[in-house]
Amino acid sequence: IGPEVIKKLRPLTKKIFDVHLMISPVDNFIKDFSKAEADIITFHPETTQNISNTIKLIKKEGKKVGISLKPKSKIELIEKYIDQVDLILIMSVEPGFGGQKFMPEVLDKTKKVKESINKKNLKVEIEIDGGINFENCTEAKKAGANVLVSGSTIFKENQGDLKKNIEILRTS
Q1: Where would you tag: which of 27, 73, 85, 120 has the fewest CB atoms within 10 A of its CB?
Q2: Are 154 and 131 within 8 A, CB to CB?
Q3: pTM > 0.85
């Protein structure tokens, strides 16, 4: 979803728009998503030449900063930036397309990220995205995630009853 879609949707809701940018060079797109009124701009370290500079650009726009790890990315890639971000997104599938199966091996990474946040006494959200369903959402929360991204489950289960599916994910 590009900035034009965000811009068109913004007047329709006060919900938080967390845009997950997997585009390179990411710095070239921050201003566009900011103007479209995204609330959180999340990027992958691999999409920038200078992680600190990207964080500063997002903050300069007055937006919250998210940084993302792909399933095989090491925590060390973002560790020194944890105290500069508002959200850490842990991908539980390889980025690219919906409907993939959750990779449970990311739960250990999630626990380690949570430990690092707690050790530094920070208020950083942990988000998991990819393959989240009614069966694995509880494990994701136990590992430390407090934000879950679920597409296929929300739109396909229970004949697409969005409210019901979201409530099940929240209370599981």
Answers
A1: 120
A2: no
A3: yes
